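Table S2 (continued). Query chain:
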Amino acid sequence: MSNSKDELLSKLKSVIADGDSDQAIELVRQLLNLGVNPLEILEKALVTAILEVGNKWVKNEAFISDIILAADAMKAAMEILKPEIVKRGQSIKKLGRVVLGTVEGDIHDIGKNIVAIMLEAAGFEVIDLGVDVSPEKFVEAVKQYQPDVLGMSALLTTTMLKQKETIKALEKANLRNRVKIIIGGAPTTEEWAKEIGADGWAPDAITAVEVVKKLLGIKDK
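Corresponding output:
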């Protein structure tokens, strides 16, 4: 007896959450053979799986490694889905563009990387500048990519000041009013965000997605 569409979507969601790339690819192929719209597969299985793992991580019910494995499984599935989406003349609608980076003097990137995974899963285009990003590099990135949101991470009390310096540099370049700014990182607080003139603060990756959506006036369906 063959599996129904809903059963296969449920299975795909589970194997993505478990980080099983091979199974994910096989289930995507089965769903496509059934004639299921690739965008439906993306939304109902891949995205929901990643966001659920992210929620578990925030609640200390999952490890960082679980998110990374789930993201790898999602990417493997997307390699099969993307050509099918293009073939049908469809497109993955992006909610907005976000530039991310860890500030100058700081090489911590795990939290930032998870924020990037969650934002991409939620439907944003993410440009990751990496770590040790100077205020000047952030300014150049805003000029080049014209993002809707700029996200800055700092994991050290000594590098937090670079978030403030970057905002000042954007003001000097007359770019501050063109982009919303969100900050995060272990030593940062909502009070610090307000003090330096950021638009938002997030203590974790799931909240970061919610804050970015709120800043851009995007409401969940």
